Amino acid sequence: MTMPTDDIQSYNATAKFLHWLIALALVVQWVTGLTFDYFARPTKITLIGFHATFGTLILLLVVARLAWRLKGGVPRLPESMPSFMRLASHGTHVLFYVLLFFVPMAGIALRFAHGHGIDFGLFSIPAPWTATRTTARLIETVHGFAAYTLLALAGLHVLAALYHHYGRGDGILHRMLPAVMAPRSAAVPVASQQP
Question: pLDDT by residue for the chain (195 residues), tens digit each?
């Protein structure tokens, strides 16, 4: 996806901000997505609308994150990391971005399939089409399966980061931690990174 750059030791502040903002937003999405069926209909409808709008905003954040990644490069993995781990890391990031695009897009399609638009408060995007109930259910199934896959991948990502930190001690986790939490050597980007 993005070639590692030798002179980048840590992700820069913008990349870290977008990473953690998207992570937090996904937690909110999973909570609302898993709980709105437990609320009374008026509250449920409100939560579904929020879920759709928030998912669209996440999609925009992912576009910004990917653009920044392509522009700024990524830190090179430690030389001590085995080749299979490098391959797994690359594959995981590719799959992450595929799902981070696909899940909200499927959610938007589901919203439109039910004849509802996306409301941003100051403006809204009307549904350009509607679908049969069978098609809507199919989209809902695909959206749900992709979302659970993304959740599982995120869990694997967290476990891998903890393994690298506590098991291998190779500094992988430090590269994405906010500067106040990372050691000075890992938290200070080199001059070639974005301002």
Answer: 555 554 567 888 899 999 999 999 999 999 999 999 999 999 999 999 999 999 999 999 999 999 998 887 788 888 888 899 999 999 999 999 999 999 999 999 999 999 888 988 778 888 888 888 899 999 999 999 999 999 999 999 999 999 988 998 888 888 888 876 655 544 333 333 333
The residue range of the domain holding 160 is 4-187
Could you tell me if residue 192 is inside a domain?
Answer: no
Token look-up 């200070």 returns: 188
The answer to whether residue 193 sits within a structural domain is no
Tell me, yes or no, whether 131 lies in a domain.
Answer: yes
CATH code at position 99: 1.20.950
Nearest CA-CA partner of 68 in 104, 106, 29, 16: 16
Q: Name the domain count of the chain.
A: 1
In a domain, 195, yes or no: no
**CA pair distance 189, 184, nearest whole angstrom:** 10
